[in-house]
Specification:
heterodimer; A: mainly alpha; MetI-like fold; about 75% helix; B: alpha/beta; Rossmann fold; six-stranded mixed beta sheet; 10 helices; 10 strands; about 20% strand
């Protein structure tokens, strides 16, 4: 009885908007959709599996020379061989140290410059035209110069990796600093903060999350220069291994090197994301 | 700065104190145009704000009221004339003149409490920090339960309360507010107006506040400076007669106040006249 009356007086609204995203069979192409974490993981695995599957089929089909285009299973075996028998871990470590040293150096140079250029128009006016020019020079063009100046040792490789990212880094960090809202700086001034305090207590903390994002993006670019840097007169490192493998047409080992660079890149990316999450708890509430 | 108790004793009566506490003296603002000409946006503006008074700058958009406020803060400079606070010429921003902006200016990386303490930290005022200044003002704006939250977790009205407490905790001589409730919804807006009047009355603050909302001006202002536009000039200075016995505490009291409708109509007519010929 009661239920019937309730139905009569308050007609149920048609099942609509709120329920839609929860039901199975969610449409694929919906704008601004929020996915469940596990859905994202599954879809990510599906994407990778599709790629590996297509590669496996292509690599094992007739007419494709297996030595020049090995399937993922061969690359996996090569990886195992490299680590177990050829001390590949030492190569990976050498490359990792090179990337970290050069990128650390680039960050140490670029952070103060980018911050000062973004904060003070005068500093930007002096440095920006010069740095903008350097940005257009290909890093590889510096290899002969660095070989003459620094020799064929570690310094030359670090220098090349540094030049590859530092000019972009400065410009991007400057843009991050410029994006600090004027009202925040003006508020600090009316609260009695002086120039130095505004730089350290407003401009820096307001820019830091963006700085971290920029560093993350540019570290990826640093990894892309790695093989170039390790081609010239190098005996260790992922790139050097790949050049050795090329001499003996060990394509599976070259591909293994590429895979390892990708894996290390993704790991660095993850480390930066984690750092961002831990260092800036207030960003979790951003709408 | 007076002690809160002394201030409370003064709160109910008319503001008393230096009649020229904040003084605008023949202030003009020119902007350069192409071809070496200049546009005079603000022309020969002179008026005074009495100590402990709430003064409202009211006028149509484009009358230069925000620019006048920014000049009082020291964030802009007058082209001609000068502004003085307690006899001292304004040459730049200082902790004497706290400001609340229309846009949200809470520092997102600091908690509510850290935001409120920001000015005292910048000025090395460890005594005020130890004495619980932040607690006092957090309580005044009813944000004590949210002191450890981040601004991003708060509503718009709460964020403006953070900005208000942050400005007041720094013990400024003058509080400047640039359409502080302009971005809030109607309900939050009247609640904030009542809260603001309560807070500044109890602490006997001198306030200069910019608005284009007639209701807000009549509710908040002991004195209302109405500006004309193109160029901005002082057209009329009003002192609502229904505030002779003291400030209002609720919006209903404003609507019941004798003469409220006449003065509102009068201001509305001025608004319309100033707006005439404006682009629509």
């Amino acid at each position: 009885m009661t239920t019937r009356t309730a139905h009569a007086t308050a007609p149920t609204p048609p099942t609509a908007a709120p329920a839609r995203s929860a039901v199975p069979g969610t449409p694929w192409f919906e704008f601004k959709q929020t996915l469940q974490p596990w859905t994202r993981v599954v879809l990510g695995i599906v994407g990778a599996a599709l790629f590996l599957g297509a590669w496996q089929i292509a690599g094992t089909s007739d007419g494709v020379p297996r030595a020049l285009f090995p399937p993922p299973t061969d690359v996996g075996r090569a990886l195992w061989r490299l680590f177990a028998e050829q001390h590949f871990a030492a190569d990976v470590w050498a490359s990792f140290v090179r990337i970290m040293l050069s990128f650390g150096l680039a960050a140490v140079i670029a952070l103060p410059l980018g911050m000062l250029m973004g904060a003070f128009a005068g500093v930007a006016a002096v440095l920006n035209p010069l740095l903008a020019g350097f940005r257009y020079l290909p890093a590889t063009a510096f290899i002969p110069l660095f070989l003459m100046w620094l020799g064929a040792g570690e310094e030359q490789k670090i220098a090349l990796l540094l030049v590859g990212v530092v000019f972009f880094l400065i410009t991007l960090l400057m843009d991050n600093t410029l994006a600090v809202r004027t009202e925040l700086i003006e508020t600090a001034r009316t609260l009695g903060a002086n120039r130095r305090q505004i730089l350290w207590s407003i401009v820096l903390p307001a820019s830091l999350p963006a700085y971290l994002d920029t560093l993350r993006q540019m570290l990826a670019v640093g990894w892309t220069y790695l093989v170039v840097a390790e081609i010239v007169a190098t005996t260790d490192g992922i790139g050097a291994m790949m050049m050795r493998a090329k001499r003996f047409v060990h394509v599976d080992e070259i591909m293994a090197g590429i895979v390892i660079i990708g894996v290390l890149g993704v790991a660095c990316d993850g480390a930066f994301r984690l750092a961002r999450h831990v260092a800036f708890p207030y960003l979790r509430y951003q709408r | 700065m007076m002690l809160p108790l002394e201030a409370a004793a003064l709160a109910r009566g008319r503001p008393v104190g230096d009649p020229d506490f904040l003084h605008f003296s023949r202030v003009c603002k020119d902007y350069p145009l192409r071809g070496g000409q200049t546009l005079r946006a603000i022309d020969d503006v002179s008026f005074s704000v009495t100590e402990r008074e709430v003064c409202v700058l009211l006028g149509p958009s484009g009358c230069g009221k925000s620019t006048l406020l920014r000049m009082a803060a020291g964030l802009d400079r007058p082209s001609v004339g000068e502004i003085a606070l307690a006899g001292e010429r304004v040459t730049g921003p200082s902790r004497d003149r706290g400001m609340v902006f229309q846009s949200y200016t809470s520092f997102p990386w600091l908690t509510v409490r850290q935001n409120v303490e920001f000015g005292l930290r910048m000025n090395g005022d460890s005594l005020a920090l130890k004495e619980g200044t932040a607690d006092y003002f957090l309580e005044r704006v009813k944000l004590e339960p949210f002191q450890d939250a981040y601004p991003e977790q708060l509503s718009g009205g709460m964020r403006q309360r953070v900005a208000l407490a942050r400005a007041l905790a720094n013990y400024p001589k003058l509080l400047l507010m640039d359409e502080p409730f302009g971005a809030l919804d109607a309900e939050t807006r009247w609640q904030m107006q009542e809260l603001l009047l309560d807070v500044v009355s109890k602490d006997a603050m001198t306030v200069l506040i910019v608005t284009h909302d007639i209701d807000e001006a009549l509710f908040l202002g002991d004195r209302i400076v109405f500006l004309s536009r193109h160029p901005g000039r002082v057209r009329e200075i009003l002192q609502p007669p229904f505030k002779q016995g003291g400030r209002l505490t609720t919006k209903e009291a404003l609507y019941d106040a004798p003469g409220y409708h006449d003065i509102e109509k009068h201001v509305m007519r001025m608004m319309r006249e100033e707006g005439a010929g404006a682009p629509h």
